[in-house]
Amino acid sequence: MSSPDGTEPPGRPAEPAAVAATGDQAGPKLDLGPVGHLGDRLFSSLAHGSGALVIAIVSFVGIFLLALAIPALADDQSSFLFSRIWEPGGDQPRFGIAAMFYTTVISSIIAMIIAVPIAVGVALFVTYYAPKRLATPVAHAVDLLAAVPSIIYGLWGILFFAPILRPVINGLAAALGWLPLFEKPPGDNVGVVFTASVVLAIMILPVVTAISREIFTQTPVAHREGALALGATKWEMIRMAVLPYGRSGVVSASMLGLGRALGETVAVLIILSVPNANDPWNSSIFAGGETFASKIANNAAEFDSPEKTGAYIAAGLVLFVVTFLVNSAARLIVARSGPGGKRTRRNRSAGGAAAKEGAVA
Amino acid sequence: MTTLAANKPAYDGQALDLTGKSGARAFKNTLATVLITLAFVLAMIPLIWILWTVVSKGYHLLFDAGWWSESQRGITVRREGGGAYHAIMGTLIMGLITAVIAVPIAILGAIYLVEYGKGTRLARAVSFMIDILTGVPSIVAALFIYAVWITIFGFNRVGFAVSLSLVLLMLPVVLRSTEEMLKLVPDELREASYALGVPKWKTILKVVVPTAFGGIITGVMLGLARVMGETAPLLILVGYSKNINLNPFDGFMGALPTMINQDRTELALQPAADRVWAAALTLILLVLALNLLARFVARFSAVKSK
C-alpha cells in the first residue's frame, strides 16, 4: 500500500476560493452563478468536528477512567503501585497492582522476544525469498493469523498447544531452574505465564510481520543492487542493505506488537491459571498469574459497588497509560528516524506502517 | 565493503580467482535461507493447526438446520440441540450498530486529514490520537464505556454499550485505510472538478470519495472483522443470554464469542464441546469471510494512480 508523500504537488489549488479569486481579476466580472459557501462551510465543520471528536474520545478515555479511579485510590489502604494484595471493597480496601504489572510485562516481553525474530524472518521471506508469484498469497496467509478471534487462540492454546509445550517447560526448568524466573513450582500446571507468552507471540506475529514487510520493501533498489554488484551474497545484501535500512521500522513494529500483547484479554484469561489466594506469590514464568486485562475481565461480575469498580478502573487506567507510552514510543521512533534515517520519508513510512497495522487488525 | 577492498592488495600479476564465494560465506548464505524459510513454516503451523482444530471439531453441527434458526433457550450443557441463531444475530446487530456509528466519523475524519487539515497542528494531533486509539486495548475501551454508561449515567448493561466500546476499536482501522485511499486519489481529478467551478464539498463527495470507494469498503469490512471477534467488551458490558433478544437497548444479548465463553469450562461434556467448537467455527467463518471479501474488493477496485 504505497502512498504519495505528504508534500503537495505545485499547482494544486489550496482552496476553491483561489479559483474564484482569479476569475474575479479577469477584467469584466464573470457570472459563475450563486457561489454558495453554505455547503462548504457545513461540510468543512463536519470534517473538522470529526477530527476534533477523535481527540476528544482519546482524552475522555483518560479523563473518565481517572475520575472514577481517584476516589477508590484515595480509600486504598495499601500502596497502589507496590502492593501485591488485591482486596478491593469492604471497609478497608487494600489493593495494589505490583503482581499484575509484573505478569503483564513479563508475559508481553517474552512474547516479543519470541515473535520478533520469527516475524523478521517471515517478512524477509515474503519480500526477498518467496517466489514472486507466491509472495502475495503468503503475505495474506500470515495476515489471516490476525483474523482469528482471540478467544479461539485461548481455547486452542490451553487445550491443544499447552500440552505440546509441557516438555519445553520441563526442559527449560531443568536447565535454568536455579534462576527464580525459571523455577518450576510443584504440580503439572500448563496454564502458566510461559504458555500465555508463546500464544501471545503467535497473536502479535502478523502485526510485526506486516510492518517489517512494509519497511523492507522500501529499501532503495540502489542499496540492494549496490551490495549485490560488490559481490555480496543474498544474505550479505540483506544484512548490509535491508536490515540497517529497516532497523527503526522493526523496532517500532516490535513495540506495537508489545502494545498488543500488553492489552490482550481473553486469550490470556483462558490460558493463565489464577493462583490460589493463599499461595505465596511466585515470580516464575512457569507459574500461573493474572495480567491487568485478564484480572479485569475475570472479575467483571464483581463490579457491584463503586469502590470495587473504581479499583478495577484504576488498574485499567494503568494499562491504558502503559500501552499509551509503548505506542507513543513506537510512533516516535518511526517519526524520528524513519527507514534509513531519512527524515524526508517519515510521513510516508509512519502513515504506511499505521495503515498496515490497521489492515491486519 | 570498504574493508574487503582495503584487504585486497594491489594486483600482483597473478590471476585472481573470481569464481565462487568462500565456503564460509556460501554456508552462511544457505543457513540464512534455511532459517528464513523455516521462520515462515513456523508461522504457518499455528494457522493451519487452529483452522484444522476448529473445522474438524465444529463442522458437523453447522450442517444442522437448527443451528442457524434456533437459540439455546432451555438447553443445558448436557443436552444436545438448539442453535446459534441468538448469538449470530447478536454479533451481527452489535457489529452493525458499531459500523453505523463509527464509519461516518471515520470517513469524515479521514476527509479532514487529507482534504482540509494537511500539515496543520490539529491534523498532526488527530493523527497522533488515531495512532493511540489503534493501540487502546479492548478491555480499556470496555472499561471506559462502563465508566460512562453504567457508573455515571446509571444505564443497564445492554448490547448498545458494547457497540459504543467497539466504535473505539473500529474507528482507527476504518479511518486509516480511508485516509490511505483518499491520498491515492490523483490531484488531477480534484483540479478538474475545481476548474469546472464545483465547490470543494461537492468535489469531495462526488469525485474524491467515489474514486476511493472500493478502498473505503475494504477498510469498513476489515474494521467489522476486527470488532466482531472481540470478547472483552461483551464480558463487561452485556450479559450472555441463551434466548433470542434482538433489542440492543434492553436486556442481555447472546453473541458468538460469549457463546463460546459460556460453555468453555464444560468441554468434558460432548454436547457442550460440540457447541463451543461449532460456535468457534461460525465466528471464524464470519470473520474470515469479511477479511477475504475485503481483500477481494480491494483487488478489484484499487485506485489507479496515474
UniProtKB/TrEMBL annotation, chain A:
Its main location: membrane. Residues 350-361 have a biased composition (Low complexity). One of its GO terms (molecular function) is phosphate transmembrane transporter activity. It comes from the Bacteria. The chain crosses the membrane at residues 51-74, 97-130, 142-169, 189-211, 249-274, 311-334. InterPro entries: MetI-like, MetI-like_sf, Phosphate_PstC, Phosphate_Transport_Permease. GO terms for cellular component: plasma membrane. It is found in: Cell membrane. Residues 101-330 form the ABC transmembrane type-1 domain. It is a multi-pass membrane protein. One of its GO terms (biological process) is phosphate ion transport. Keywords: Cell membrane, Membrane, Phosphate transport, Transmembrane, Transmembrane helix, Transport. PANTHER family: PHOSPHATE TRANSPORT SYSTEM PERMEASE PROTEIN PST, PHOSPHATE TRANSPORT SYSTEM PERMEASE PROTEIN PSTC. Belongs to the binding-protein-dependent transport system permease family. CysTW subfamily. This is Phosphate transport system permease protein. It comes from Kribbella capetownensis.
From TrEMBL, chain B:
It is a multi-pass membrane protein. Part of the binding-protein-dependent transport system for phosphate; probably responsible for the translocation of the substrate across the membrane. The gene is pstA. The chain crosses the membrane at residues 31-52, 87-114, 126-152, 158-175, 204-225, 276-298. It comes from the Bacteria. GO terms for molecular function: phosphate transmembrane transporter activity. This is Phosphate transport system permease protein PstA. One of its GO terms (cellular component) is plasma membrane. Residues 88-294 form the ABC transmembrane type-1 domain. NCBIfam families: 3a0107s02c (TIGR00974). It comes from Kribbella capetownensis. CDD domains: TM_PBP2.
